[in-house]
# Entry
Amino acid sequence: MSDTAFTGLILLAGALFAVGCFGVLARRAILVQLLSLEIALSGPALAFIVAGARHGQAAGQGMFVLILVLAAAEVALGLALYLRLRRRSDVTDSDTLRELRH
Amino acid sequence: MSGNFAIWAASLAFLSALVAVTRASVAHVLIWLLAMLLSLAACFFALGASFAGAAQVLIYAGAILAVFVFVVMTVDASPPAQETERARLGKAWIAPALVAVLLLAPLAGLTADPTTPQGRAVPATELGALLFGPWALAVEIASGLLLAALMGARHLGRRGRPEGRR
Amino acid sequence: MFGIVWTTDLLLLTIPSIALTGFMLLGLDPLRLRAFEIRVLAILGGVGPLIPMLVFATECFHGSCIGAVPIFTLVVGESTVALALQLDPLSALVGLTVSIIGAAVILYSVAYMAGTALGDLRRFFALMHLFLAAMLTMVLAGDSIVLFLGWEMMGLCSYLLIAYNTTSAQAIRAGRKAFIMTRFADAMLLAALLLLFLEANSVRLDALIPAGVAAQDGMRPIIAALLLGGAIGKSAQLPLHTWLPSAMAGPTPVSALLHSATMVAAGAVLLIRFAPILAAEPLLQALTAILGAATALFGAASALVQQDVKRLLAYSSISQIGTMMLSIGVGAPQAAAAHFVVHAIFKSLLFLAAGDIAHHSPQGTALAALRGARQRKPLAFLAFLAGAASLAGLPVITAGWWSKEAMLAAVWSAGPILWVVALATAVLTAAYATRAALVAAQPAPAAEAAQDDSSDTGYTLFPLAFLGFGALLAGGLVNPIIRFLGGDMPHAPAFTLAVAAIAPIAGAVLALALAPGAADTPMPAARTGGRRASVVDRVLRVLVIQPFVRLVRWVNGQDGGVEDPVGTGPARLVVWLRRTLAGPTAPDRADRLYKRAFVLPFLQLVRRLNGYGSGVVDPLGNLPARAVLRLQRALADALAPDWIDRWWRRIGAALLSIWTSARRLQTGRVRDHGLAMVAGTAGLLLLAWGYSWH
# Structure
């Protein structure tokens, strides 16, 4: 596999992260923001896999496994928080949650 | 050949992600996200990371998205709700888009170091030996994280006494 | 990279793990447990750590301490993070004491807490187990990370246990106070440990302490001072003592554990552990000694006038730990360790006995609730007497005398002034111990004597009897302990020994002189008339009460009660002490001072910074703009304003408006703050990219 292909893949990984960031920043629905976080997390995951393949080392996939764990934990807590918020007051818009500012 | 396939799959993932974050309906976002995750899995397979690809399909696309589907069922997806979501998007996307592009700028000059020897496909056994050998501590910490998330989600999600009272 | 080498030494891990498992089973496990199962688990988790601890400690006492047991090692550059447990003489001794006291207290609380609701019972034992595990972890720690972990866990548990009664606002306040005040200590300890890490490039204690001793560049006094600060806060020494008397809001077994072997004593253990560093700094050593002596005297004087038995014992703990600090400060940490052991025994005994006597009493924990103990709970009364005698340090027959003697001898060699203070403390200690014992010896008012609800079970009898014998007989251990820790038994001239032996007796006489009414009350056997006096009663009357009564009559002049020459002087002293140390507002005096000096100004500052009260939003951000406006007003308005002045003015106004619009960035919305974060990251990346761009 050519080095150009690897460079392109790393660029795409960065782009995935940027798209995820964009989603978190531009969307107001909490659920969509959580989904965008998943996109953002898959960017680094791709980068690790690509680097692992380029160098022929298992560490890349090892990091991917750790990212997977992180994503799972984040989704579990994020969705639980979301449901809790929904139950408290019917909130789907993250912009209305600004009570931490005095 | 496989390199080209990986590039195509990753580009597909990127495009699906782009579409996903711009859909108004949460259900549509979810479908496009699924497309993204599956094409990423294909990319992983093409790169020789078969374990990662399988994990991506099973855990991400299988488990994590399934949980999202359950939650999405509780969301109001009627056309008026979609309209408000579309209206909310408004012009607020410009600054985030600029910042996201700025994030990418440092990657512009990226080149691979040709002196590094080319790698090979990493078998899953090596990954296992890494994770349960030298990385055992990291795996333990990760399991602790999962446990904490489990307990936290259970605690947050229980249907307890009404809010405001202990 | 790390790998665990399995050896039998790793069984050292089981000591805290058993208690920790108890905590997890009781505290986290979703299973429903019945009262019986909770009790079984409580006993297993409480007594369990004692078994491996006994094995390891016995081995250690026979001269083969296993030393440091690495758990895992991570090499980061030139530093190593090496988690380890450690069994050296000090940790064997303290660990054994802690696990014995812990087992006794938990056994006792099985009976004490019998009437509690299931959920609360579970929470109580889970937290007690965690508390015990934390102290054992701290004692057995072989590196600063594990040490700090145990130390912090203990702070958390003390908070949760003091505020155990979640329906009482006072208990919650007391818990919060304890937590916040010990937090200062924790921060100082953390700073000390981090500085030591920088010196040693290792977290292992066997490398840290020599590195601390060898530290240069004026670092050593800072480290020693921070360590001292940490110990003072945790041990409730002056001036951070106020949390301990309030901490009495927790259940009695909690106080028994908190005061004797864990938490409060942890500060002393810490200083004994790091004594070499302190010994290398004579100035701080002197400071330790002076603070210890002052605390000891203050605590004893306060204890003398308390009306609540738990508060009395709290001030007594403050005072006793103060004498340990004094002993550490004069360079005799081994004597302090010996007194730690003895103090742990008799203080837990006192708490347990007092709790048993006053349990379900209508007076709560007031000193008066102890009255009638002899009829209601003869064994608890005997145990209380044994504990009080040991606390008073009655010569030869009590353990307290032996350890106190060793400390006094060490203090004598350091200087007569400190010795005099320590002696005065000993007199006062004996006085308040006697006072408490006298109250317990009084018969209960007839109305209360009738209600005798609970009978003693083995759960209370065994710990009380065991600790009671320990409080009297453990004196023989003092010398071996000091030897075992590598110190010499301090020697002092014979006359100081004699004076020190008279001190407790003088204190007891003082107490009798101050409370003539207490001893003059008629013999309870006579009052109850027909009831046959038990053997206990008879023995007590012959051995303790009649000599006391005679002594009091003698001191007061034959008649007793009328104008007595000795009594008025001390009585006046007590009235004065009571007014200053135990008046209606006295316990809060230090608190109020702290509140005025630290808490209120801090709150004021925060409020100001947040723009409350001044009517200005975000005063900190507005400050530069306002300064510019004021400056231009002062400069420009003095002269006739021309067009330059107008421009100059506009700059000030512009700054203000810029600030107001910049403040809109703080929206409190997740997205906006996220945007700022991502933009910052992008900026940093661009910067790094620019630097790497040759």
